[in-house]
Amino acid sequence: MSAVVAVALLLGGGGFAAWKLDWFSGNGEAVTFGKNPPPAAGTSEAGTPAAEAKPSGDPDVLMPTGPKSDFKQTTKLDDGTIIAKTRLTGAKSGFEGDVWVWAPKQYDDPKYAKSGFPVLIALPGGNGFPNNYWSDRSLGLQKAISEGAQAGTSLPFIVIMPVLNPDAKYYYDGSDIPGQAKMGTWMAEDVPDFAKANFRTYKSRDGWAFMGSSSGAFVGMKTVLQHPDKFKAVIASGGEIVPDSPLWKGHQAEMDANNPEKLAQKLIDTKGPEVYINFQIGTKESGKERMTKFQQQYGKGPIKMTIRDIQNGEHNGWHYVRGMKEGSLEWISKVLKAPKPEAG
């Protein structure tokens, strides 16, 4: 089912209103992020291209490294911000897949033209192919971030939404399973490199995090534990704790190397660096006992772990976004690096 059809069904009689509100106007058109770099010093000629912004005094700021991707609009939010899609061929994994992106209004504000922005890599549950359902505005993820940023309870994250799996037949556990597409390298290397190529980000892990639901929650948590030098935090909603792809058969050692239980223990044994895990679980879904057991055994030393109950919550994205609005966005915003506007 296409995203447009799905939204129309969700809206019911409000479908016409959606078109009237211009939600889909411009879909398929080229999109450019970062429209307001300052002009070059001493340049005022009409028609002269704007110069690339130079970073602020913060040495952690990383300006877009390029090459730029070609983005096409897939939907528009009420505040005028755009969700767009591109096709990415991972230089390190060799995997080719779709990636959706969204930047908050602050990203195009001239006051932030020299600032980095924190990145939230959002992973879907289910097959996670060929779409990433967080790119559907009906779930409200981007709106929650925008409203939280305005209220001061969320950082204005750039949201990167890659496909989770290379097909709809198997789960690949966000890992490099021998003989299969290198989805671990895709997620931990190619997707962040893509974000750095196209957006103002941070060099340090203080600006990098995951959020995900169900199988995507597992991949996000596993990747943070596996690469604590690159990522600092994760919001893991309704997720699994251990790898369970049938493709691991005959590859026990490799599966162990992608098991959050073993990765957490290794991090504890080596004393860091610190990572932050925020589990979310609806009170109407199962799985809390797994999270509680994991927290009791591994929530110590460098692993900072919390569990958020979503009252009357079920296993779906709408309720996980509600949990984020009720506190998880504020939680993750406190451990990541904020963009810094110029004075004036």
**pLDDT averaged residue by residue:** 90
User: Which structural class matches the secondary elements?
Assistant: alpha/beta
Distance between the termini: 48 Å
> How does the overall form come out from the CA principal axes?
globular
Strand content: 15-25%
SSE order in H/E notation? Answer: HHEEEEEEHEHEEHEHHEHEH
What does this protein look like?
- It is built from nine helices and twelve strands.
- Strand 11 (275-282), helix 8 (288-298) and strand 12 (303-310) form a beta-alpha-beta unit.
- Strands 1-3-4-5-7-6-9-10-11-12 form a ten-stranded mixed beta sheet, with helices on both faces.
- The longest helix has 19 residues, at 317-335.
- The chain is α/β, with parallel strands linked by helices.
- It has helices at 3-11, 15-20, 141-151, 183-198, 215-226, 252-256, 260-269, 288-298, 317-335; strands at 30-31, 61-62, 71-76, 82-89, 96-102, 119-123, 158-162, 201-202, 208-213, 233-237, 275-282, 303-310.
- 29% of the residues lie in helices and 19% in strands.
Which SSEs are present, and which pair or pack?
Layout lengths: L2 H9 L3 H6 L9 E2 L29 E2 L8 E6 L5 E8 L6 E7 L16 E5 L17 H11 L6 E5 L20 H16 L2 E2 L5 E6 L1 H12 L6 E5 L14 H5 L3 H10 L5 E8 L5 H11 L4 E8 L6 H19 L9
Parallel strand pairs: 6-7, 6-9, 9-10, 10-11, 11-12
Antiparallel strand pairs: 1-3, 2-8, 3-4, 4-5, 5-7
Helix pairs in contact: 3-9, 5-7
